[in-house]
Amino acid sequence: MDITKISEQIIFWASTNGLKLIIGLISLFIGFKLINKVIIGFRSILEKQNVEATLITFLDGLCESIMKILLVIFILGYIGIPTTGFAALIASAGLAVGLALQGSLSNFAGGVILLFIKPFKVGDYIEANGRSGTVESIKIFYTNLVTNDNKSIVIPNGTLSNGIVVNYTAKDTRRVDLVFAVAYTADILHVKKVLTEIVNKHNLILNVPEPFIAINEHGSSSVNFVLRAWCKTEDYLTVYFDLLEKVKIKFDNEEIDIPYPQMDIHMK
C-alpha cells in the first residue's frame, strides 16, 4: 500500500514539477547560449567604438554575470522554488559591498568615464592633481604615470574624472613661449632682427602659424621680448632648450646685454 502511494506521488510530481524541471533545464541551456551570443555582439559593438580592451573585458563579465543570475532566478521561480529570499539576499549583499567599497566604486566609475570619453591615452603627457608625467597605463581603478626622471605615480581614477586634466600631447602642434630680457641701452630693432633670424633658421619651427616676436614689457631693469613659435608636439622640448641656447650665444656674439638684478649702495 505504501509503495502504491509513493508511486502515485512520484507520478504526480513527474507530471507536474518534473515536467517544469525538464522545461526549466532546457530553458536554462538555451538561455545561456543566447546570453553568450548577446555578449559576443555587445563586445563587437564596443570594439567598433574603439573602447579600451580592459573596459570591454570588465563589461563583458559584468553583463554576462548579471544576465545569467537573473535567468537562474527566473527558472527557479518557474519550477516552483521560492526566490523572494534569494533576491533579497543578493540585494542586501550588494548594498553591503557597495557601502564597504564606496571609494573603490568611485574610482571604478571614474575609470569607466575615462575609458569612454578618452581625455587622454597611453603615451600622452598630462598634468593632473598636481602631478605630471607620461601615461603608462589606464586601468579600471587607477591610472599610472611615469615622470621624466622615471618615477611611477598612481592616481585614482575618481580624482582624474572629477578634476582638471591638462593634456600636453593631445594636439599635433604646440607653441613655445619664451621671454628674453635685454638692457635698455640695446637697439631694440637689432634685437628683434636677431631673434627673427634665429627663428627663421631653425628647421623644427613651423612657418604656419607664423612666429611672433615683440616687446612684451618695459621691466624695472630690462626690456622684455616675447618669442612665440610653433612646432610639432614631439619637438617641443628640443625647440625650447635649443632656442635658449642659440639666443644666448647669438646675443653674446652681437654684444647684446642680458641684464640681471643689481643693487647700487651709496655710503655717506
* Low-pLDDT windows of residues: none
Number of strands: 8
Query: In total, how many domains does the architecture comprise?
Result: 3
| Computed Rg | 34 Å
Query: Shape from CA axes?
Result: rod-shaped
H and E string: HHHHEEEEHEEHEEH
Oligomer state of the chains in this structure: single chain
* CATH domain class name of the largest domain: Mainly Alpha
Count helical runs.
7
Output the CATH topology of the largest domain: Helix Hairpins
CATH architecture field of the largest domain? Orthogonal Bundle
Q: Which structural category do the helix and sheet elements fall into?
A: alpha+beta
Indicate the mean pLDDT. 82
Strand content: 15-25%
| Cα distance spanning the termini | 134 Å
Share of helix, binned: 40-55%
Biggest beta-sheet profile: 5 strands, antiparallel
Spatial order of the strands forming the largest sheet: 4-3-2-1-5
Structure description:
It is a multi-pass membrane protein. With 268 residues, the chain is α+β, with helices and mostly antiparallel strands. The chain folds into 3 domains: 2-100, Helix Hairpins (Orthogonal Bundle), CATH 1.10.287.1260; 120-167, SH3 type barrels (Roll), CATH 2.30.30; 173-253, Alpha-Beta Plaits. The chain is 54% helix and 19% strand. It has 7 helices and 8 strands. The chain has helices at residues 2-48, 53-79, 84-100, 102-117, 157-162, 188-201, 236-253; strands at 125-128, 131-138, 142-146, 152-156, 165-167, 173-182, 212-218, 223-232. The strands form 2 sheets. Strands 4-3-2-1-5 form a 5-stranded antiparallel β-sheet. Strands 6-8-7 form a 3-stranded antiparallel β-sheet, covered by helices on one side. The longest helix has 47 residues, at 2-48.
